[in-house]
Write a structure and sequence with these properties.
45% helix; 11 strands; seven-stranded mixed β-barrel; 14 helices; globular; four-stranded antiparallel beta sheet; alpha+beta
């Protein structure tokens, strides 16, 4: 009898051990037990769904070991409050698109926790071995709310209409390891092989390198403190963003590039930062004026935030152009101060230093006013939307099937913002 009890106990111990090992190897790892249960519940739900065929199908197959690595990076990022460099680890997988397949490297994407804090629908950065997805060498996969549903799509189309540099941006139906995650956005990533760079011989992309401070930042405490400081300021003072602007290194996007063109581009931007050269000697001011004008149509300065700016240097003209990126949302313009909205032509405590420097150039400022009034003209907008509306309605219709609670009023807001801009700038234009 005693022996049987020992045998039963051994069987029980072996069973528990097997279950534990299985759970360790195959169950997802969340930030807590409840988060793990939410991940399991969500995965089972999305496994039960069938693709709707709203957009082209894109499928990912990521091995369990790779998923574990992504889960670990997610947990660390949630605990840190932001995605640091140490948690941006590429893992292997496979991608299937329009009857073709290729091996990929994939990692988490997105600085803020909204990109990966929910149980399943995370944002990803993908590097395919072969460029089978619309010819893209690198791209992001984002749940549409991360970019304002269709707002980023419309923003990139308008940027292209005005003759500036857009990113390739489209929607797909995403399936991950058999889980139908619904509609996702494909957003072209910055790379030496990206479409905008291909059109310019020896062009290079530069940016301000935020990794030197973001990797050591206590983000939640920083953000809460910064908002309190900005809200209390009676007038503009040196903000953390302005200190970063003056102190952070300017680097080439992507792999290290020590070519003469890269060094020339970095020196030119440093000359602008240090007030050695004015805006019109550093930027293609026609393109820059259009960039700022389009941002104001959307009532949002987020693409001009230092961490979002990418500058393409053309060695033939020795000038920079801004590649449009990360609008996120649309807002009604008004004279009410907000850290998410400002009017570049007015004095504001929220206007970043690099934008102030751009507008300190009289040549650029006059050109901007002329360009902004042109783009805000009702006839111009009517022409723009006559070209975009057919595809815009189709995209919005398909998105509505998955997001029935969303009302697409961005066109209405753009016309309202255009009227506000015309009324605000007519007096300025008339006085020049």
């Amino acid at each position: 009898m005693f022996t049987k009890k020992i045998v039963y106990l051994l069987y029980f111990f072996v069973f528990i051990t097997i279950v534990g090992i299985g759970a360790f190897l195959f169950l997802p790892r969340g930030t807590s037990f409840s988060d793990t249960l939410l991940i399991i519940k969500s995965r089972l739900y999305y496994l039960s769904l069938k693709p709707k065929g709203n957009f082209p199908s894109l499928k990912l197959e990521i091995p369990s070991s790779s998923m574990r690595s992504l889960e670990r990076d997610r947990t660390r990022s949630i605990n840190a409050g932001l995605l640091k460099s140490e948690n941006k680890n590429y893992v292997p997988g496979k991608l299937f698109y329009k009857g073709k397949e290729t091996s990929i490297k994939i990692k988490l994407k997105g600085w803020g926790s909204e990109h990966w804090s929910i149980p399943v629908k995370w944002s990803f950065k993908v590097k395919p071995k072969e460029c089978i997805v619309e010819g893209l060498a690198k791209f992001g996969l984002l749940y549409p709310p991360r970019r304002g549903y269709s707002i980023e799509w419309l923003y990139q189309r308008i940027v292209k209409f005005t003759g500036n540099l857009p990113l390739h941006y489209q929607f797909v139906d995403l399936t991950l390891n058999g889980m139908y995650l619904g509609t996702y956005a494909i957003e072209e990533a910055f790379d030496r092989k990206m479409n905008a760079v291909k059109e310019i011989d020896n062009g290079v992309i530069i940016k301000w390198d935020h990794s030197t401070w973001s990797d050591t930042l206590d983000y939640p405490a920083y953000f809460n403190k910064l908002i309190l400081i900005l809200d209390s300021l009676p007038e503009k003072k040196n903000s953390l963003s302005d200190l970063q602007y003056m102190s952070m290194p300017i680097v080439v996007q992507g792999k290290k590039n020590n070519s003469g063109v890269a060094k020339t581009a970095i020196k030119l931007m440093n000359d602008f930062r240090n007030n050695i050269k004015p805006t019109n000697e550093v930027f293609n001011i026609d393109k820059l004026a259009t960039t700022v004008a389009v941002n104001h149509l959307f009532g949002n300065h987020h693409p001009m935030a230092l961490q979002n700016l990418r500058f393409l240097y053309d060695p033939m003209t020795s000038r920079f152009e801004i590649i449009a990126y990360d609008l996120e949302q649309i807002d009604n313009l008004s004279n009410i101060e907000s850290c998410f909205r400002y009017l570049a032509w007015k004095s504001s405590k929220f206007t970043p230093q690099h934008v102030i420097q751009m507008f300190n150039d009289t040549i650029f400022r006059k050109l901007y006013v002329k360009t902004q009034l042109k783009i805000a003209d009702t006839t111009y907008l009517n022409s723009l939307f006559s070209e975009l509306d057919y595809e815009r309605h189709r995209v919005n219709r398909e998105l509505t099937r998955e997001f029935p609670h969303i009302t697409f009023i961005e066109k209405k807001i753009i016309y309202q913002n255009a009227e506000f801009i015309r009324l605000s700038l007519d007096s300025i234009n008339g006085s020049q």
